[in-house]
Structures are given as structure tokens and as C-alpha cells.
TrEMBL record:
This is DUF4393 domain-containing protein. Pfam families: Abi_alpha. The lineage of its organism: Bacteria, Pseudomonadati, Thermodesulfobacteriota, Desulfuromonadia, Desulfuromonadales. It comes from the Bacteria. InterPro entries: Abi_alpha.
Length: 228
């Protein structure tokens, strides 16, 4: 196994990649390319020339990045299907292109889950703000856990409910395993989340900003949000 509480054991994955025969690796990459095209075809088929931009962005990725991105979109499509809702709005092409570029090197399972959620939310509602992509690419698993904890401790009932949905997404990434969150944030984690405008200090306590609340909703599993 190459999984740790914080995500993938990169050294282990590297050793595994070296152990894969070239023929098998080529097949894995080919499968990833096919998976991505199958996932994105309903969008590119109606996007005309803009759809070609998505294809071009994906083709420029190195092989390992193509595998990662295809995983994100495959999982996102599964999430969309699980909502059993009709997709009414077209996703914004610039959002999908930026996601492809910014998520292609992500190996942490928790953040990968949040990328898939963000893609699914955009496919369903077309309402993901571009800034959320910049925020997520600057976060790691510890940031996500701390953000969830701060939201969970909110006195606002609606924020606490949203925190529950966000935490469920995090648990999905680690196969439902309970994860630990320190009682107090480290200075860097709190300051980093503050710099991202996700939290702010009020009366000596860290609380979500409006941006933080909107980000948590956008990065939560759409199945539980739409179905609530």
C-alpha cells in the first residue's frame, strides 16, 4: 500500500511506476486518454472551437499528468451521475481548462477528491468561481481539514451543516477512515487560510469568511448538496 493519512506515499508511487513494464504503462496512459475524452465529449461536442481548447490543453500534459487529470474527470462524472439531476447549465470552458492545468500534478487523495467535486459542481451548475481554482491549488490536506474544523465549530447552523458535507468529502478520499484534526491551528495553517480569504479572526476566534463558506460549498460532493 502507498497510502498514508496525509495522502499518497510519493516515494512508493515512484517505485511502483518504475516497476511497471513499458507496454503496461503505455496501456495505462492510453486508457487515461480514452477515459478523459469519454468524460469530456458531451461538453466538447457542444462547445465548437472552444472544445478543441480543452483537448489541446490535455494533450500538452505529460503522461503522468494525463492519468491524474483523467481520474479527476472520471470521478467528477460519477458524482454528476449520482445526483440523478438534469444538467441544465453548460460548464464554463475556461474553468475546465484551468482545472486541467492546475490539478494535473496533484497526488494528495483529499485534494484530488475536492478537485473532482469542483469539476462536478461546475458541470452541474456552471457556477464555480475562477478564484476557487486558485484557492484549491494552494491548499493541502491539512488546510482542508483545518477549514472543515473551523466550519464545524461555527455557531451558524447552516455553516455547521455545510461543514458536515465538506467533511464527508474528505472522508471519501481516505476510504471513510476517521482523520484527526488538531484542537488548535498552527500559526502557518491559520495564517495561510486567512491569506486565502477563507477564514478571519472575530472576537479572538477563527471563523469562515463569506468566501470560505462559498468555497466549502463548491468543493463538497454535489450528491449530498443537491439531495439535501
Amino acid at each position: 500500500m502507498f497510502m498514508t493519512e496525509e495522502g499518497l506515499d510519493i516515494d512508493g508511487v515512484g517505485k511502483l511506476a518504475k516497476a511497471i513494464p513499458q507496454k503496461a504503462w503505455v496501456q495505462i496512459v492510453d486508457t487515461a486518454c480514452t477515459t478523459f475524452k469519454d468524460c469530456i465529449s458531451p461538453i466538447t461536442s457542444t462547445a465548437s472551437g472552444l472544445g478543441r481548447l480543452i483537448d489541446a490543453k490535455f494533450e500538452r500534459l505529460v503522461e503522468s499528468e494525463k492519468i491524474i487529470v483523467s481520474q479527476h474527470f472520471k470521478k467528477a462524472n460519477e458524482k454528476v451521475k449520482n445526483t440523478k439531476k438534469t444538467v441544465e447549465n453548460k460548464p464554463k470552458i475556461n474553468i475546465l481548462i484551468n482545472v486541467i492545468e492546475c490539478s494535473s500534478y496533484e497526488t494528495d487523495e483529499i485534494i484530488k477528491e475536492l478537485w473532482a467535486n469542483l469539476i462536478a459542481q461546475e458541470i452541474i451548475g456552471g457556477s464555480v468561481h475562477p478564484d476557487f481554482i486558485n484557492i484549491l491549488k494552494r491548499m493541502d490536506a491539512k488546510d482542508a481539514k483545518r477549514l472543515a474544523k473551523i466550519a464545524e465549530e461555527s455557531s451558524d447552523k447552516s455553516i455547521k451543516e455545510q461543514a458536515t458535507l465538506f467533511i464527508k468529502s474528505i472522508k471519501l478520499a481516505v476510504a471513510g477512515i476517521e482523520f484527526s484534526i488538531p484542537d488548535e491551528p498552527t500559526d502557518f495553517t491559520a495564517e495561510h487560510l486567512s491569506n486565502l480569504n477563507l477564514i478571519q479572526k472575530t472576537s479572538g476566534k477563527w471563523v469562515l469568511t463569506n468566501t470560505g463558506r462559498a468555497f466549502i460549498e463548491a468543493a463538497s460532493d454535489p450528491e449530498v448538496i443537491i439531495g439535501k
